[in-house]
Amino acid sequence: MPDEELQLKKLLKELFKTQLFAALATQHSSRPYNNLIAFAATEDIKEILFVTNRGTRKYANLLASSSVSVLVDSRTNQDSDFRNAVAVTAVGTAEEVKDKQKETLLRLYLVKHHNLEKFANSAGAALFRVKVKAYYIVRNFQEVMELKMEQ
To answer: What's the total number of domains in the chain?
Structure first.
């Protein structure tokens, strides 16, 4: 694995550990829709996890179209963000986790979001995973890099 790829993966893992929330972009009938989500990533960063209620527009959009993007960033709303902040867009497909991995992935999610345990285990909650196809990393305001993920 090239050194640059290792460095990007290290950067992503650190960002994902420190940030609790991300913006999920879905679509339905050619209309975009964004939601704030509490997220976690798998150790290999090939999947991003989140929980939503089945009665939401987000859930309906995910069923209508599995193509999503997830934005995670390190901004602090300071001028220094132009130099220091990192923004990462993950592009991939979302699916509800219903298989034997659900318990393991939900446990991983709850390690980071233990305060959401009651919600995540409620009857109306659905655990989703985004299978990431690629990450687009922006730092230093305009420096853009792509990291493709093999599934």
So the answer is: 1
Q: What is the pTM of this model?
A: 0.93
Distances (CA, A) of 47 to 79, 105, 115, 132, 143: 32, 10, 21, 6, 24
pLDDT band at 76; cut points 50, 70, 90: confident
Q: Is 115 helix (H, G, I), strand (E, B) or coil?
A: helix
The CATH number of whichever domain residue 89 belongs to comes to 2.30.110.10
The Cα 101–Cα 39 span in angstroms is 17
Q: Are 27 and 33 contacting, i.e. CB atoms less than 8 angstroms apart?
A: yes
**pLDDT value at position 1?**
57
**Which residues, including other chains, have CB under 8 Å from residue 98's CB and lie 6 or more apart?**
none
User: DSSP code of 19?
Assistant: -
How far is residue 56's CA from residue 60's CA, in Å, rounded to a whole number?
7
Q: Would you state the structure tokens that stand for residue 62, as one six-digit string? A: 């995910």
Residue count of the chain, please give it: 151
